Amino acid sequence: MIPAHYSPRPRPAELIADILPPAVAAAESTGKAPRTGFGLFPAEEAALRTAGPGRRAEFAAGRLCARAALARLGVPATPILPGWAGQPQWPAGVTGSITHCAGYQACAVALAADVAAIGIDAEPHQELPATLIEAVATRPERAWIRQQAACVPAVCWDRLLFSAKESVAKLWYPLTAQWLSFHDVAVCLADTGTFSARLPSGPGWASGDLPEGRMMGRWLIRDGLILTAITLRCGGLATSSRAGTLAGLLRRQNELRTRRSTARFS
Questions:
Q1: How far apart are CA 174 and CA 177, in angstroms?
Q2: On the CB side of 135, how many CA atoms lie within 13 Å of its CA?
Q3: pLDDT, tens digit, for every residue of 40-57?
Q4: Closest CA to 112 of 70, 80, 61
């Protein structure tokens, strides 16, 4: 049974869309997701055969948002299966990101010809547990958070930093097949609703492949939520001797997957 306060029909995004560029289509839903696999394709149901009720509810709510967002791109409904690391596997020619937290689910998608990668994240506007801040923020970032908290106490700067880093990690993984740790990326939050992210060099890619070695994102606090989003447009990667063009990054991504599959099943 679906609770009366939950709509299985995601609506056009009113929150996350405010921090996304025009080339990105989005959908969102609010309220507690039903503890059911409502609206899933059989292949998606099969992928969740060992998942608990909570995970099934989150997955289903996110996939419903994804199908609504894809429809705005003119892409027909299709199973969106989790990859080997849990990442959504989008239809050919599409890139995207899904997020959910208590009472909110959203998806953002774009044509890969327009946008190379997307990362979005939603969090409750609450302070991080004190035990997590050292794992999330570097020492300079922690000092900055303390300073901001003293000047603008109405904003949970620690949770906002966490969310921005989550968005960056969700964007970066499809490009490199590598997860970033929280200390891998340096984020600078601006009180204008933007943030910059600087990435370290790594195998097969380098921060210098990005314009000025960094990416720019946006953030929003509204209705008790923190929302962050970051996109990398096609052509947003500069040519370099280490990583080359976006095509080179995607080629390396496929090579990494092949190596890992061979190692796992050999």
A1: 6
A2: 6
A3: 899 999 999 888 888 888
A4: 70
> Could you state, in order of their start, the residue ranges of all structural domains in the chain?
11-113, 123-265
Instruction: Please check whether residue 28 is in contact with residue 227, taking contact to mean a CB–CB distance below 8 angstroms.
Output: no
214-222 and 104-111 strand pairing? unpaired
Residues 6+ apart with CB under 8 A from 136: 128, 158, 161, 162, 165, 182
Tokens of 145: 């958070």
80 phi/psi in degrees, rounded to 5? -115, 95
Query: How far is the C-alpha of 213 from the C-alpha of 218, rounded, in Å?
Result: 17
Coil, helix or strand at residue 47 = helix
Distance, in Å, from the CA atom of 163 to the CA atom of 239, rounded to the nearest integer, reads 29
Report the distance separating Cα 9 and Cα 27, nearest Å.
10
Whether the predicted model's global pTM rises above the 0.90 cut: no
* C-alpha count within 13 angstroms, C-beta hemisphere, residue 130: 1
Contacts of residue 119, Cβ cutoff 8 Å, sequence gap at least 6 = 97, 166, 167, 168, 169, 170, 171, 172, 217, 229, 230, 231
3 state DSSP class of 63: helix
One-character DSSP codes across 12-32: EPSSGGGGS-TT-EEEEEESP
Q: Which residues contact 164 (CB under 8 A, 6 or more apart)?
A: 121, 187, 189, 195, 197, 217, 219, 228, 230
Q: Measured between alpha carbons, how far is residue 263 from residues 155, 256, 259 in Å?
A: 45, 11, 6
Tokens standing for 72? Answer: 């705005």
Please, which residues bridge with residue 107 across strands?
A: 27, 98
Tens-digit pLDDT profile for residues 82-134: 998 889 999 999 999 999 999 999 999 999 999 999 999 999 999 999 899 99
Q: Name residue 58's amino acid.
A: E
Q: Does domain 11-113 have CATH number 3.90.470.20?
A: yes
